Amino acid sequence: MSSHLNPGTSAIRREPRWPVVIALIAICALYWSLPERLTPGPSWVMLAIMLALVIATVMSYVAGKVELNFFLGVALLSIITIAVVWSLGALIAGLPLKREAPRDLLRSAVALWASNVLVFACWYWRLDAGGPHHRDLRASHTTGAFLFPQMTVVPGSPLAKQAWKPGFVDYLFLAFNTSTAFSPTDVPVLSRWAKLLMMVQSSISLGTVAILAARAINIL
User: Fold this and answer.
1) What is the count of structural domains for the chain?
2) Domain containing residue 90
3) pLDDT tens digit string along 33-88?
4) Is residue 162 part of a domain?
5) d(CA 188, CA 3)
6) 13 domain-assigned
7) What is the spatial distance between Cα 175 and Cα 184, in angstroms, rounded to a whole number?
8) Residue 204 burial class via C-beta count within 10 angstroms: exposed 0-12, middle 13-18, buried 19 and up
9) Contact 179, 117 (CB under 8 A)
10) Does residue 6 belong to any structural domain of this protein?
């Protein structure tokens, strides 16, 4: 989340940040719902760290501290990603020992899958084309790590009359497809860092789905 525009760019439409804040709070709530055995340490400690970084990130955006905002945002997403991977590993490790009741296992797997979608949507939003601050400074989105369909519109066509820039929902759609279809579908990936992140996201999603499938076979 970023803030001040350069002189002469005040007329450029800035992307709203509230969808990202809602997504981050949702991730915190989902992680809080996990059994304490699946969290590194007491669950309230990780929740407190996440919420503190969310608040600090929002405050840095309001204060117009772009570099600090970027650093805090990356730190927050890194901690959440590590926590999700750790929880998934703990869930998989406990599967042969049947440590989790079927209902708790299903609830935990769904929470981790949803957290995976949201956190990687935030990653793509945070890093694509230099981040939200740099995207705000441009009149339209013509370059980045992802080739959105709107970027391929032929100049002069009716669809090209209004400048287009991706919002959080566009990255959420991309992350959702990656976790369900294990591919970016209609959005080609151009950057190597984005390809690596998508590989990590797909691996987490596949691991979560495999847990459900293994448990379902075991029940049968």
Assistant:
1) 1
2) 18-219
3) 998 888 888 888 999 999 999 999 999 999 999 999 999 999 999 999 999 999 99
4) yes
5) 29
6) no
7) 8
8) buried
9) yes
10) no
